[in-house]
């Protein structure tokens, strides 16, 4: 027979780690800034995150600029690189993922 005990892991951070990445600050109010959000169709849960961030950014007076990217190779890769170059010139702040 097995044990009657299960372990539930808590995903929250309870204390900053010594090697933790610092939180980024734009150093000014976000209102009036163009915030670029880069995403692709591979990470479907991130799409839900971006939807929520887009709503929150608009509520704070920022202008979200979504960029859907495609493949990284071939003709579509060339188009993706071109789109990223143009997008990076148009935004004040760029979010390209959660960095995990």
Short description:
The chain is an alpha/beta fold and 100 residues long. Helices cover 33% and strands 15% of the residues. The longest helix is centred in the C-terminal third of the chain and has 17 residues, at 74-90.
Would you write up a description of this structure?
The chain has 100 residues and is of the alpha/beta class. It has a domain at 34-95. The protein contains two helices and three strands. Strand 1, helix 1 (44-59) and strand 2 form a beta-alpha-beta unit. It is extended and about 55 Å long.
Low-confidence stretches: none
SSE string, helices as H and strands as E: EHEHE
Q: How many beta-strand elements?
A: 3
Largest sheet: 3 strands, parallel
Estimated share of beta-strand residues: 15-25%
Q: Please give the radius of gyration in angstroms.
A: 18 Å
Q: How confident overall, as mean pLDDT?
A: 82
Q: Spatial order of the strands in the main sheet?
A: 2-1-3
State the distance separating the first and last CA atoms.
Answer: 39 Å
Shape: extended
The number of distinct helices, counting runs of at least 4 residues, comes to: 2
Q: Could you say which structural class the secondary elements and strand pairing correspond to?
A: alpha/beta
Helix content: 25-40%
Write the layout of secondary structure elements.
Layout: E1 34-39, H1 44-59, E2 63-68, H2 74-90, E3 93-95
Parallel strand pairs: 1-2, 1-3
State the main characteristics.
3 strands; 33% helix; extended; 100 residues; alpha/beta; single chain; three-stranded parallel beta sheet
């Amino acid at each position: 027979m097995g044990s009657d005990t299960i372990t539930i892991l808590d995903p929250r951070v309870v204390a900053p780690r010594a090697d933790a990445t610092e939180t980024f600050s734009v150093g000014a109010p976000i209102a009036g800034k163009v915030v670029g959000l880069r995403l692709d169709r591979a990470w479907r849960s991130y799409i839900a995150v971006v939807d929520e961030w887009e709503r929150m950014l608009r509520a704070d007076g920022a202008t979200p600029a979504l960029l859907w990217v495609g493949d990284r190779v071939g003709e579509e890769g060339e188009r993706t690189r071109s789109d990223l170059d143009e997008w990076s010139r148009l935004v004040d702040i760029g979010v390209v993922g959660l960095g995990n």
